[in-house]
């Protein structure tokens, strides 16, 4: 009886493992095809500037759809792209789409100062990234200075010296940096100070902590204000409600990003968002 039971469990585990590997394999194939056809979807989420009330920066977020699996979240396909050595090419297609979007927006009469692109660890140290940025921006006739890279702390921590050099090279092209997901996992304050980040993005979990009780709020507010005092911009991410927006204001953030203002959306919808927002105030 025991054996039979154990047998069933092993079978179940094997089945789950197979389903898991099959799914990963399918996603890898979908990624390869999307890269090959250069039709990776990119959504854009407007970022609200507290001082001006305008949305002059955007975050570009990769999207993957397939007939077979439907919507696949970047939380799932980005790690696969990284492991399978596809992130470099995926990033290149993304840069291309972002530059094309910038051009399109200009044609529509919509001025955007900055488009943030998430950069994986492998990408930033790849010699080709700089080359591709220059190629693509020249080809699409946009000045690459509108590009802005988002890096997470773990990336920075892993290769301190190399990272500083790489960041300075991009800065010389007018490409700035944000520290993404600040407050998740291990946090090292010197990363904020010694690397040329112009902006710190407080992860949405910090906002939700601040919302939970007043003590949390006071500590996170002090953190945000310290960043401001050393000359960093602060973005509060994940703002979905009026109450959270007010918390973000009270923290002293310069920028707010979240579903309250806008969800990430395809370019066509983004154009409409800007045309409609000329008369909206928050
Ligand atoms: P991230 O860079 O921190 O991006 C912010 C995530 O928060 C996005 O999820 C966005 O859709 C979501 N978000 C925005 N506003 C709200 C809100 O009000 N409430 C909630 N609950 N969520 C909100 P998404 O698009 O699923 O991306 C997840 C992560 O995948 C990103 O986190 C980023 O680390 C990674 N990622 C996305 N696109 C790319 C890419 O092109 N390249 C690389 N390397 N990573 C990417
Ligand atoms: Mg990001
Ligand atoms: Mg983030
Ligand atoms: Mg994230």
From TrEMBL:
GO terms for molecular function: cyclic-guanylate-specific phosphodiesterase activity. The chain holds residues 358 to 639 of 639 of the full protein. This is GGDEF and EAL domain-containing protein. It comes from the Bacteria. The lineage of its organism: Bacteria, Bacillati, Bacillota, Bacilli, Bacillales. It comes from Paenalkalicoccus suaedae. Keywords: Membrane, Transmembrane, Transmembrane helix. Residues 24-278 form the EAL domain.
